[in-house]
Design a protein that fits this description.
- By secondary structure, the protein is of the alpha+beta class.
- The protein has one domain.
- Strands 1, 2, 3, 4, 5, 6, 7 and 8 form an 8-stranded antiparallel beta sheet that branches.
- A hairpin with a 4-residue loop joins strand 4 and strand 5.
- The N terminus is likely disordered.
Length: 181
């Protein structure tokens, strides 16, 4: 795992943080997502959620879709996990999972042009990756004892696929980068 380390020649901080903030702030109105100005409602809501981001990624894989991003959100006080997946025919869908029921409840096709552009960029990053989002998430959580994954978004950083993973532990958030090769 690489955390922004200038001395070791690791991933540069500025481009990743700039893109991470941009990616994490894209979302539906009326939701509080990881990356918004006030993360505390999400941190508080996740304390009672047993389902994990990893569980959601596995569930989407079982539907035949390849996960290309995932994030927890709170909408009107209800926690849900949104996983964007790509079907074999190249269409994108947003799979909504509600941890309280541990079931997939909605799979609307992504049609918004801005979201389609982001999904295509994320798919491109995952197409050049040799490590899945599930493995990257597991690695990030394992390396950060006491933290759980809140979101994961792939991107290309200087041509190399990297996953930006947001974690929460004891009300504290941190962003780490996982190499996808």
């Amino acid at each position: 795992m690489q955390i922004y380390d200038y001395d070791s020649g690791g991933i540069r901080r500025e481009p990743i943080l700039r893109l991470a903030v941009l990616i994490l702030m894209v979302g539906l109105s009326g939701t509080v997502e990881a990356g918004r100005i006030d993360d505390q409602p999400l941190a508080i809501a996740l304390k009672n959620v047993k389902g994990t981001l990893e569980d959601g990624l596995k569930a989407v894989e079982r539907t035949g879709r390849k996960p290309i991003s995932a994030h927890f959100a709170v909408d009107r006080g209800v926690v849900h996990l949104s996983v964007t997946g790509c079907a074999e025919d190249g269409t994108f869908s947003e799979v909504l999972l509600y941890p309280a029921t541990r079931m997939i409840t909605e799979t609307p096709e992504v049609t918004d042009s801005a979201k389609l552009k982001i999904a295509a960029e994320q798919k491109h990053a995952m197409d050049s990756a040799s490590v899945s989002l599930l493995t990257a998430t597991e690695n990030a959580v394992k390396a950060n004892h006491g933290f759980r994954a809140v979101s994961i978004f792939p991107m290309l950083e200087e041509g190399d696929p990297v996953a930006v993973v947001k974690l929460v532990g004891n009300g504290e958030f941190k962003i780490v980068a996982e190499n996808l090769n």
